[in-house]
Amino acid sequence: MSELPDPLSRRDRQQQTREALIFAARSVFAEDGYHAASLDRIAREAGFSKGAVYSNFDGKSALFLAVMDRNLELAEADRTDPFEQTTNPASTGHDVAEREGYPPAATQGFALATLEFIASAARDETIAPQLHQRLVAVLDYYNAIAQKARAEHETLAVSDVGKLLAALDQGAGLIQLAGDVAPDPELFNVGMRRLLDPARSVTEKESNT
């Protein structure tokens, strides 16, 4: 006779509830947008009452920030060297969505919801500092890429290169969201590599011709 597993502790149950709410919230935000998304629907999709949301998060903005945090964790795990990857970093979101069980359209939907949230949070003196922390974390992600692929004679600071990478990557994402014009992956990679190490980019181009 097999032994029954130990019952979950209160802390473990709460963690499972938070995870379920975050998973459901990402899908609802992606489908409805930030402003139109309701906590009632998020709770229902996760299999809980609305009270469960308020037991774990201060409100919709806190729940959205928790989803952003999860996305940042997944992106961190998927960080790659632009000299090794075959697609632009903006495609990472699609890869993460597929691996986590979200439909492909969820990546674009959540990106649009994020734009809504940023516009709202930037005007809120309580939420703005919390949003700033996440943006710093995003820059840290690009700084790590810049540090890993840093050219020997690079004169710009790692943080400066990181900001330029962020501007290129996030700017390309905005163009795609606004006009559904996807940057050509190869052209995007050329731009990323030239920004990180122009000399190495030229050498690679010559060796491939």
Report on this structure.
The chain has 209 residues and is an all-alpha fold. The chain has a domain at 64-207. It is 70% helix and 0% strand. Helix 2 crosses helix 3 (50-56), helix 7 packs across helix 8 and helix 9 packs across helix 10 (198-207). The longest helix has 23 residues, at 10-32.
Gist?
The chain contains ten helices and no strands. The protein is mostly helical and 209 residues long. The protein has a domain at 64-207.
What attributes characterize this protein structure?
209 residues, mainly alpha, 70% helix
Structural class: mainly alpha
Percentage beta strand? under 5%
Largest sheet: none
Please provide the ordered H/E string of secondary-structure elements: HHHHHHHHHH
Low-pLDDT runs of 5+ residues are none
Our Rg estimate from Cα atoms comes to 20 Å
Number of strands: 0
Number of helices: 10
The pLDDT mean sits at 81
Give a topology summary.
Blueprint: H1 10-32, H2 39-46, H3 50-56, H4 60-77, H5 92-100, H6 105-121, H7 128-148, H8 158-179, H9 185-196, H10 198-207
Helix pairs in contact: 1-2, 1-4, 1-6, 2-3, 4-7, 7-8, 8-9, 9-10
Domain HTH tetR-type: 15-75
DNA-binding region: 38-57
GO molecular function, one term: DNA-binding transcription factor activity
